[in-house]
Amino acid sequence: MSSDQALQGYLEEAASWDADRVAQAGRAAAVAWRVAAAGWLCAIASTTALVILMPLKRVEPYLIRVDDTTGVVDVVPAYTGHAPLGKAVARYFLTHYITVCERFDYAMARSDYEECGAFNSARLNQALYAKWSRANPKSPLNTHQDGSTETARIESVSFFKGAKGASELAQVRFARLERNGEGMPARVTHWIASIEYRFGKPPADPRMRAWNPLGFEVLDLEIEPEVLGGTRDPASRP
């Protein structure tokens, strides 16, 4: 009888030990699941933080200026398109725009085409592409195959207030000088360019920014001939 009691006690202890091992394994599994869940939460939180902060990571170009006399170093602030600009700056960009976009010389054709596009709106760039396409019989690439050139001479710039308020209107009078060969007199015609423009955010592309650092943008352009009763010598002034 005593041996049966001892065996029963042994079996009860074995069952208790086995139950403890199962409970311990269950607790370990629960802890492991909690740790894994915490790890996934941290990973998701980190990814979300990176996605939120990604737009803040950008390259800002800046110019360092050194005073020749004092040696003081400072950073020249970049124009962001918010400060108002005077008529003198607008006049420069208007005259430069017409000078570049209305001239043609095979040696500078590609550079002038790209620089002109740096000032145009998307719609005007589409029109510029169509104008310069080889498929267009009136393309300057076709009409100047004989080596002739065109230059623009600015004669006057007038400013008007735009109806929308966010843009400005200007009228540029210029002469177009067409030369067919060396030593030949230029054929002069006179034109009026009506330009709607604004100053916005400068281009992000470094090459475009080099041409257009102040975000000058031509929104609309109309060029019409000005009748002055014939052509004049290119050296004469109106």
CATH class of the largest domain: Alpha Beta
User: Total helix count?
Assistant: 6
Silhouette: elongated
Estimate nothing, just give the exact number of structural domains: 2
Order of helices and strands: HEEHHHHEEEHE
**For this structure, what is the CATH homologous superfamily of the largest domain?**
VirB8 protein
Kindly, what is the distance between the CA atoms of the first and last residues, rounded to a whole number of angstroms?
136 Å
Strand tally: 6
> What is the makeup of the main sheet?
4 strands, antiparallel
Estimate the mean pLDDT confidence.
80
CATH architecture of the largest domain: Roll
Proportion of strand residues: 15-25%
Secondary-structure-derived class: alpha+beta
CATH topology (level 3) name of the largest domain: Nuclear Transport Factor 2, Chain: A
Q: Which sequence of strands runs across the widest sheet?
A: 3-4-5-6
Rg to the nearest angstrom?
A: 37 Å
The low-pLDDT segments are: 230-238
Can you give the helix content as a percent range?
Answer: 40-55%
